[in-house]
Write a structure and sequence with these properties.
The protein is built from two helices and eleven strands. It is an alpha+beta fold. Strands 1, 2, 3, 4, 5, 6, 7, 8, 9, 10 and 11 form an eleven-stranded mixed β-sheet that branches. A hairpin with a 4-residue loop joins strand 7 (120-131) and strand 8. It is globular, with a radius of gyration of 22 Å. The termini are far apart.
């Protein structure tokens, strides 16, 4: 009877350990999973819906702790190459070494928070109604919080974003399709698609922030 009780107790303990293991794996582990995204190819800001019609990315590779890719979402004007109605920039870091991994990225201050083993982003902005020639825009808002979901790899991605901006507003939306790969330093690279052409023509967007 005592032997049977010991065996029963052992089985019970094994079941508990197995259940805890399953529970540990089923926690909200956002690194490497493929989020369910149904792209609308639009974003909503201040109650207004803006169409998105093009996208690109730059691959900066492994930085010693994370794999970095920048993503660029646009609404390009159909008949005016100098005018860009919408530009959303996202600077994402995946917890991987060889390639950029899909998953859910949370906004974080990497200098103040431990981002080891986590997908995160720490930079991004929204620019509305940018004029390249005059180097101005109607509005620029910087990301201060939120999440970004990424599904896909290579040149094909689906991205969904729910962002808080430094002006207290939110930016929500999604985009999916073929993303043009842009050399990290587009101004020195050969011009290929429309995103590369825009980045070469526009130069450093940071000049608008002054």
């Amino acid at each position: 009877m005592q032997q049977l009780w010991k065996q029963s107790r052992k089985i019970t303990l094994l079941l508990i350990v197995a259940a805890l293991g399953v529970g540990g794996c089923s926690k909200d582990d956002d690194e490497g999973i493929e989020p369910d995204i149904n792209p609308t190819n639009s974003l909503v800001y201040k109650g207004h819906t803006y169409r998105l019609n093009d996208a690109g990315y730059s691959d900066y590779g492994f930085d010693g702790s994370h794999y970095n890719q920048e993503f660029y979402l646009f609404q390009f004007a159909e008949d005016d190459d100098d005018y860009v109605p919408v530009h959303l920039f996202l600077d994402l870091y995946s917890a991987s070494e060889q390639t950029f991994q899909q998953g859910i990225f949370s906004f974080a201050d990497y200098e103040a928070e431990d981002v080891t083993g986590k997908h995160y982003f720490d930079d991004g902005y929204l620019i509305l109604n940018m004029r390249i020639s005059s180097e101005d825009a109607d509005e620029i808002a910087f990301i201060s919080g939120g999440t970004v979901k990424v599904a896909g790899s290579g040149d094909n991605y689906k991205i969904e974003f729910d962002l808080m901006m430094n002006n207290g507003e939110s930016v929500k939306g999604s985009y999916g399709g073929t993303f043009e790969r842009v050399a990290p330093h587009a101004a020195q690279s050969g011009v290929r698609g429309k995103v590369s052409q825009w980045m070469q023509k526009a130069g450093p967007v940071s000049r608008l922030f002054n």
